Amino acid sequence: MSGFLAGLCVAVLPLLAAGFWLGRRTARPENLGGLGTPVEHATFETLHTASLAAPPLRAGLTGETARKSARRLRTLLGTDALCLTDQDTVLAWDGLGEHHRTEIMERLGSPLETGRGEAFRLKCDEPDCSLRWAVVAPLTVDDRVHGALVACAPRESAVLVRAAGEVARWVSVQLELADLDQSRTRLIEAEIKALRAQISPHFIFNSLAVIASFVRTDPERARELLLEFADFTRYSFRRHGDFTTLADELHAIDHYLALVRARFGDRLSVTLQIAPEVLPVALPFLCLQPLVENAVKHGLEGKTDKSHISITAQDAGAEALVVIEDNGTGMDPDRLRRILAGEVSPSGGIGLSNVDDRLRQVYGDRYGLVIETAVGAGMKITARLPKYQPGVHSAGPLPRE
Prior knowledge:
Blueprint: H1 2-24, H2 38-57, H3 63-77, E1 81-85, E2 90-95, H4 101-107, H5 109-114, E3 118-121, E4 133-141, E5 144-153, H6 158-197, H7 201-217, H8 219-236, E6 243-245, H9 246-264, E7 268-274, E8 282-284, H10 289-300, E9 307-316, E10 319-326, H11 333-340, H12 352-363, E11 370-373, E12 379-386
Helix pairs in contact: 1-2, 1-6, 2-3, 7-8, 7-9, 8-9, 9-10
């Protein structure tokens, strides 16, 4: 879908460039600065203007985004005035004749209801106002009219009608991309909620049972474990952004392992090898803890001897390389493949497929989990995390309550 929208943008922009050039060729001759023909120069100028107008629109149609993009859109059309509206009000006006706001909103009923553009004569008693015509082009997303782009000019023009329609189509594409971005964000939030729901009730019950067992024999130990439990659950159920830092995620893992070790004693040993320079790396929230929980489950389940888990985080140039390995029961590779593909549900609900999906959504398919395992051979999970990814920023330390 996003590929189609991008293609539509590319198809529309040359038409805008041609209209821009025709409107400006005689009005304002310019030095082309070695950019080639006038059409090539107009194409470059149009693409540059469109690139400046696009980022605000990718946040949706609001008063702030309309204000930031209106001037760029007016430049694309070369009109005396332009406004962007939603269903109820003028969000932003750029250019002359702002006193026409009320009149324009009164005339938008039909275009906003039908989704069809129209042009109409403006009524004006202001002697210094040159605006006489308005061209309305609805802004639609998924066949729903969200608002309108209105271009105002001194005279009626068929060229302006078509150009306004093309610009409105381009704006609609940006708004649809914004809608897709918001849908993606909602999907990630839903997956985080699902992952929280998968935190094993048995783990919570067993942790509280272990804490209770120390209340009489070792009250200080019980107090320490209760604080570990409180910090772990507080982090897991926080409402503080989609991303965290590697340092915060490892800190939560440390709380989790403290509770596990209290239960299993010397049956479980853990080694950590963490490069300090990768601690500030941002990553999706609750991305590594489920992998460690998976290692604990498969490291201890069905075993009577000691189990070992190693966690390493290394600096790998532009990436941080995180490896979580256990010497447990392992898994049939074919079953693992079907779990990651969503064909079967993982036993215990630890969420390997959830983590793999989120990494791919945020960083791309190149950054899915790499898992090496076989029955009886343990499991090694490798996650590569780019040190910088557009849009991936930690919300900062979890606020104290």
